[in-house]
Write a sequence for this structure.
């Protein structure tokens, strides 16, 4: 496959055959080597063939093979001629990250670190096998799907300020839960307020390095050693079922003929089915926002109980990693509304965008990039250049390089836990097997991913944080 | 008319390397056996099916426009029953696949138990995918599936 070097971090797959636009891959030489080993590049080409795609099919620096779209795939579609694809969002709709600051420093909590983690583990249900906090009624669930994190705040989980510091203010207004199947609702009822398993985690972190003090301060990050809390989870089984349902509905309506990959099934965004998926996806996004809102509330409760106060635990931001949105972008010199798919990518709006919280508007939005379990995570800031370079998007994480199966062969959960402890990281998990699967050696080097984002200019470094306590579902 | 029916014996599936998710191949002398083994392969990513008591039975009925969709929906049943009903699959038996005018239908009995604290859940499968899905007959039936984890 032809891959043209544009600069040290930008590679183009020229338009050929059925591709409607070229593809652009953002990767260092080192990252590109791993990208070449799987189907990422072919998947980026497949996306470039979809109707109504604008400018380029993009792959972010953490790109790796997905199903249909690559993970780290970003594509924008014309609203008249374009499509919407459940595979372009992913099964875990609004898998995302919420980050809380605190006024605590490492020395304030080091004696109580284990207790904090144990209490968090008690308060925040992992939800694997066991349900969430309450048996929800269907009517309450429908309200949550409509109102997202707003519902949670109205019901005593967190503050109105949290909503202002959440992407979309914690609520996608186009949500219409009436299109969700009863199966999706049934999967959603027992799992509200649960973290989930797999790559999802909750971490107590400390700031290790600040790259940009001015912007860090705006975000609420004051100095090295400051304690933060990161929550990484999504829309749970409800979102997975929405994706599963609409893939089937679209197959039955449109058929799978001519698709290079069945997971690329899509519907015209203007069509009734395209709209039904979009509105259902928005409802699942809202479920995930409510979920993270509740979990953040419990974390604050635990801090208050164990350390005496949760004052100062302001939310830095809450970002989506798997989503489709209608956004305004400049294309060929003209502003237009497009449907952006970000599958394993973070929005990275720069200064001036009206969608981002007022306090961040002069600087750009916080971009939160979790590493793998037990490794560094990063806070970046969105840039003006990203509008031109990637439809205001950047990476979302480390990206796996080793299969779960291989990780299980190579690592033992106990050994990973002991190694983390030796590095000063406490771990609480429902399963040591799950710990082995998520071993950080099974992931790409997140440092290289964020460095690439910074060099390309689609998200610039603000701070590096490292975990001191990890809860894995 | 059923293609063929038989009860599963032994474990006939393997996991393959896949960078992001889990990929497996399941085998069977009949298509039904391969479907049953695929069900065990999915369940084994979350719990140990052989440790689940067979105290409950659930009848599963699915339809698909083709065999791939039939498999996708059949395996998705395991996730739905676990998350919505707390049901843990121990084995899928009495699987019957029928060719119909516009696709296929399947009926099966899932044996297993409802979740309780004595069971260990060590993984979570988010969804079944069509990515790299294969359903093929050589000497034996071969099924390959990638699941999102």
């Amino acid at each position: 496959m032809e891959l043209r070097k544009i600069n040290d971090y930008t590679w183009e797959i020229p338009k050929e055959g059925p591709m409607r636009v070229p593809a652009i891959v953002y990767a260092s030489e080192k990252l590109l080597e791993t990208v070449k080993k799987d189907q990422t590049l072919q998947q980026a080409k497949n996306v470039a063939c979809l109707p109504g795609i604008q400018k380029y099919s993009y792959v972010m620096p953490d790109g790796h093979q997905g199903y249909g779209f690559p993970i780290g795939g970003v594509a924008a579609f014309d609203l008249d001629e374009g499509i919407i694809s459940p595979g372009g969002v992913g099964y875990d709709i609004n898998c995302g990250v919420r980050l809380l600051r605190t006024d605590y420093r490492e020395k304030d909590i080091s004696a109580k670190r284990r207790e904090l983690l144990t209490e968090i583990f008690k308060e925040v249900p992992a939800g694997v096998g066991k349900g969430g906090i309450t048996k929800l009624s269907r009517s309450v669930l429908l309200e949550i799907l409509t109102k997202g994190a707003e519902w949670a705040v109205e019901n005593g989980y967190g503050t109105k300020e949290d909503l202002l510091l959440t992407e979309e203010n914690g609520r996608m207004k186009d949500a219409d839960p009436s299109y969700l199947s009863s199966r999706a609702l049934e999967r959603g009822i027992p799992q509200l307020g649960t973290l989930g398993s797999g790559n999802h985690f909750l971490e107590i972190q400390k700031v290790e390095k600040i790259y940009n003090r001015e912007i860090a301060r705006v975000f609420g990050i004051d100095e090295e050693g400051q304690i933060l809390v990161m929550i990484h989870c999504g829309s749970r089984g409800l979102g997975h079922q929405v994706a599963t349902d609409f893939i089937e509905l679209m197959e039955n309506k449109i058929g799978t003929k001519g698709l290079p990959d069945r997971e690329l099934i899509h519907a015209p965004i203007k069509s009734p089915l395209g709209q039904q998926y979009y509105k259902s996806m928005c409802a699942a996004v809202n479920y995930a926002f409510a979920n993270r809102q509740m979990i953040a509330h419990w974390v604050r409760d635990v801090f208050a109980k164990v350390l005496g106060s949760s004052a100062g635990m302001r939310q830095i931001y809450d970002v989506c990693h798997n989503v489709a949105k209608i956004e305004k972008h400049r294309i060929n010199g003209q502003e237009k509304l497009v449907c952006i798919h970000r599958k394993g990518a973070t929005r990275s709006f720069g200064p001036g965008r009206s969608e981002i919280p007022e306090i961040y508007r002069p600087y750009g939005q916080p971009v939160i990039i979790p590493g793998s379990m037990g490794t560094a995570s990063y806070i970046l800031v969105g840039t003006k250049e990203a509008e031109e370079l990637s439809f205001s998007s950047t990476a979302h994480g480390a990206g796996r390089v080793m299969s779960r199966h291989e990780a299980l062969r190579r690592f033992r959960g106990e050994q990973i836990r002991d190694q983390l402890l030796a590095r000063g990281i406490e771990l609480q998990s429902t399963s040591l097997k799950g710990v082995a699967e998520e071993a950080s050696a099974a992931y790409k080097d997140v440092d290289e991913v964020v460095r690439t984002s910074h060099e390309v200019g689609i998200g610039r470094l603000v701070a590096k944080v490292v975990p001191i306590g990890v809860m894995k579902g | 008319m059923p293609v063929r029916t038989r009860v599963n014996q032994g474990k006939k599936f393997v996991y393959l390397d896949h960078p992001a998710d889990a990929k497996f191949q399941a085998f069977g002398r009949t298509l039904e056996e391969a479907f049953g083994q695929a069900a065990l392969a999915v369940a084994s990513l979350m719990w140990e099916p052989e440790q689940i008591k067979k105290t409950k039975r659930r009848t599963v009925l699915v339809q698909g426009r083709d065999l791939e969709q039939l498999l996708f929906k059949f395996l998705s049943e395991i996730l739905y029953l676990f998350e919505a009903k707390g049901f843990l699959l121990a084995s899928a038996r009495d699987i019957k696949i029928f060719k119909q005018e516009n696709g296929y239908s399947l009926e099966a009995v899932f044996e297993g138990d409802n979740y309780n604290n004595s069971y260990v859940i060590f993984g979570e499968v988010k969804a079944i995918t069509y990515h790299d899905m294969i359903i093929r007959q050589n000497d034996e039936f071969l099924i390959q599936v990638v699941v999102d984890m």
